[in-house]
Design a protein that fits this description.
314 residues; alpha+beta; Ubiquitin-like (UB roll); Threonyl-tRNA Synthetase, Chain A, domain 2; 2 domains; 5-stranded mixed beta sheet; 5-stranded antiparallel beta sheet; 10 helices; 15 strands; globular
Amino acid sequence: MAKVILPGGGVCEAQGITFLELLGPKANAAAVLLDGKLLDLRETIPTTGEARILSLTDPEALEVLRHTAAHILAHAVTRLFPGVKLAIGPAIADGFYYDFRFPEPISHEDLPRIEEEMRKIVEKDLPLERIWLSRAEAERLLRERDEIYKLELLSEIPGEEISFYRQGEFLDLCRGPHLPSTGLVRHFKLLDLAGAYWRGDPNRDMLTRVYGTAFATEKELTEFLRWREEARRRDHRVLGPQLDLFSIQNDMVGAGLVLWHPKGARIRRLIEDFWVAEHFKAGYQLVYTPHIGRARLWQISGHLDFYRESMYAP
């Protein structure tokens, strides 16, 4: 039998049933950590090994919480924007995102409406069910829904049994793991929109990436949002123009190119002089390289393939 460490430190042995069956439906549990791997609570307990049940507040469970939040986001978007196409929706360091191809462009003004729909899905406390389809069934399903990005992902998944997750009427190609139900994702916030090329390839479709974050507690979410707002206020792109140090004239000069004002130029010179003096004292030497070069140089560096359209012609 496998050794199962319960939330709170209790230990039991079990096998042949799922972790969720062992704990019961009302358990305050998020996922399982088995030999360093995160698993769904609906996984069957193995015959050997040591498994630790993670509560929502365990740091290791945060990835699962945010992954489920991404699915709730996608669920809400499919309700509000018929015809939207789904791409990918992972957990990331500060939250989660999901990439979509919308029938019509959306804006930041749409985020509160999406968030409200997400809260409706959370309040329904829908169970997340993992289902397995044969490769042929999975391909047929995705073709019927015209999910072109999911079909591409499917083509790269090995094996003949394909994992999906379902919550209510929403179904997504996904390997998991996920929380037992949507009702456990209570503290979340949608943060931003951005453009994102499919698979990071500038020659592929431009998608819309919706960013959000989620935490196990309201306190953690509030603290994160406070920190984020503080970082925004201290953003050099905001402070520089406010203090009359520099400006960035994207339309006139170029994206991200800085025009230093007199006060900013003086500060820059002082910093540069200090930097050079300290390096000389440490035994370094100073060299200068050209700002432009032959195309071959940029081919070797890898810049030309990515920035050809934005660079001067060779």
